[in-house]
């Protein structure tokens, strides 16, 4: 990686008891930043140390994205690494984990485990690259900002739209899962469209909380909620005599060490795993609101280790006890009564998951609209009107997506293939190559190995994008034609009761 830039700029001020915060930049990047963002390139600045936190001596935070942050507006730089880890966990565990037992059913134990571990390694690297790139380019807040640096204004718009569409689609998928939960708990007491609207409204209320620092407590709620639901599912699956989808009379649970799926089914299963790890777009926002971005890598390693262990345990245990009778989402696999219990436990977590993605999508548009305006970080009427309007619009579009593709696994695989691979694998691999092409370490064995690794990751992402999107479209089209699923904007019960 490039060596830290050790020079100082005219932004330095007199200090008493202080230390210096520096960003690793080379001269080429320093010149570029100075030209593109005059007055926003605080390469170094003095800070006081208070309770282990870096606080600028003037009592204000000067940020390349948010400008000057003080008591006159929300603090967009107030996230510690532990709370960052929790948010990283919650942006992933939720809808994704509920599709993993079906992945093992499609691929078999060994291939399924290998796919989960390989994609965990690839996307963990992508998540780390987000932090490296942010430190090298302080003005970056979203992946669209990174695209602007590498590809210019056109690239920013293309990648920005793909990023925004992905997080809105995932928020929409959470509305769909919330409707399944309400239908299960209430035994379809209302039209499914009504439950989707209820989910969207609840998510919009929580997503309107302005900063990730204030919203991070919801991450704990969501994490405990989803974990308690999947643990209950695993215990119930081990104790029950009959999975909920098992036929009347005698039946046999079949699990396979290695299955022989069709190409379309196999790629769809891989796309669901990509979706399960598709929290990477949110990680830009998380590192962008951390007090100390240098702590970001620690948060990623902790979060990805925990999430992978959870995915493997939940997927393997549930598939072992339920076999081919796995439901979609998986919470409905262990019997009617247990299904109500697990969905009741999971409902807060499903809401929090949707909240984080809706918040991220809305924050992207909000920053784009008000960037370089005093309204971005000040409590003005314009600030609030724009923010609440964008949150409402985001949830409205998520609702339309949820109702247009109203079946869970197929929606997950489509999002994972079409958007997840581009935003979570290909972009980050290219970001590392772009940032390190002229690195002082160029030509060393470490540089060569990392370059080859990122090229391979980029190629894998390209394959999954094309093949996965094709497979998802084929399956969705077949489902609509066969009539095995309800149509768009249908009141039909989607809980499988």
From TrEMBL:
Q: Where is the composition biased (Basic and acidic residues)?
A: 26-35
Report biased composition (Polar residues) as residue ranges: 1-24
Q: Which InterPro entries match?
A: AA_transpt_TM
Q: Where is this region: Disordered?
A: 1-56
Q: Where does it reside?
A: Membrane
Residues crossing the lipid bilayer are 93-123, 158-182, 189-209, 215-239, 300-322, 342-365, 385-405, 411-434, 455-476
- GO cellular component terms attached to this protein's record: membrane
The UniProt record lists the keyword Membrane: yes
Keyword field contains RNA-binding = no
- What is its membrane topology? Multi-pass membrane protein
Family named by the database record: Belongs to the amino acid/polyamine transporter 2 family.
Name of the protein in question: Amino acid transporter transmembrane domain-containing protein
Q: Which organism is it from?
A: Kwoniella dendrophila CBS 6074
């Amino acid at each position: 990686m490039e060596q830290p830039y050790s020079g100082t700029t005219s932004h330095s001020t007199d200090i008493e008891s202080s230390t210096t915060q520096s960003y690793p930049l080379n001269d080429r990047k320093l010149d570029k930043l100075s030209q593109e963002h005059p007055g926003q390139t605080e390469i170094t600045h003095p800070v006081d140390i208070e309770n282990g936190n870096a606080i600028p001596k003037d009592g204000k935070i000067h940020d390349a994205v948010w400008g000057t942050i003080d008591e006159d507006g929300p603090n967009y730089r107030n996230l510690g690494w532990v709370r960052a880890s929790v948010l990283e966990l919650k942006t992933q565990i939720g809808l994704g984990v509920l599709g993993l037992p079906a992945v093992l059913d499609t691929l078999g134990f060994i291939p399924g485990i290998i796919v989960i571990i390989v994609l965990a390694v690839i996307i963990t690297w992508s998540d780390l690259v987000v932090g490296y790139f942010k430190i090298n380019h302080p003005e970056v807040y979203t992946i669209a900002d990174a695209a602007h640096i590498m590809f210019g204004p056109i690239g920013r718009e293309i990648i920005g739209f793909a990023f925004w569409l992905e997080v809105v689609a995932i928020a929409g998928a959470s509305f769909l899962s919330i409707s399944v939960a309400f239908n299960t708990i209430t035994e379809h007491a209302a039209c499914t469209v009504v439950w989707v609207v209820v989910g969207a409204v609840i998510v919009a209320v929580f997503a309107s909380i302005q900063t990730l620092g204030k919203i991070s407590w919801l991450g704990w709620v969501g994490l405990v909620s989803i974990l308690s639901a999947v643990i209950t599912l695993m215990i119930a699956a081990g104790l029950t005599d009959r999975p909920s989808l098992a036929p009347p009379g005698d039946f046999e649970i079949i699990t396979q060490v290695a299955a022989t799926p069709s190409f379309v089914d196999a790629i769809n299963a891989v796309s669901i795993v990509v979706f399960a790890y598709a929290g990477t777009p949110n990680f830009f926002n998380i590192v962008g609101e951390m007090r100390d971005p240098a702590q970001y890598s620690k948060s990623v390693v902790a979060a990805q280790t925990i999430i992978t262990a959870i995915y493997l345990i939940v997927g393997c245990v549930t598939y072992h006890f339920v076999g081919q009778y796995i439901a979609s989402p998986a919470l409905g696999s262990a019997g009617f009564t247990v299904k109500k219990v697990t969905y009741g436990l999971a409902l807060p977590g499903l809401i929090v998951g949707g909240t984080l993605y809706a918040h991220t999508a809305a924050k992207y548009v909000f920053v784009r609209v008000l960037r370089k305006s005093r309204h971005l970080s000040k409590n003005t009427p314009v600030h609030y009107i724009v923010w609440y309007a964008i949150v409402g619009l985001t949830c409205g579009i998520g609702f339309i997506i949820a109702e247009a593709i109203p079946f869970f696994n197929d929606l997950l695989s489509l999002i994972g293939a079409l958007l997840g691979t581009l935003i979570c694998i290909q972009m980050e691999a290219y970001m590392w190559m772009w940032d390190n092409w002229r690195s002082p370490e160029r030509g060393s064995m470490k540089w060569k190995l990392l370059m080859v690794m990122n090229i391979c990751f980029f190629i894998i992402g390209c394959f999954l994008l094309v093949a996965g999107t094709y497979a998802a479209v084929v399956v969705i089209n077949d489902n609509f034609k066969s009539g095995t699923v309800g149509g768009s904007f249908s009141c039909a019960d989607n809980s499988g009761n």
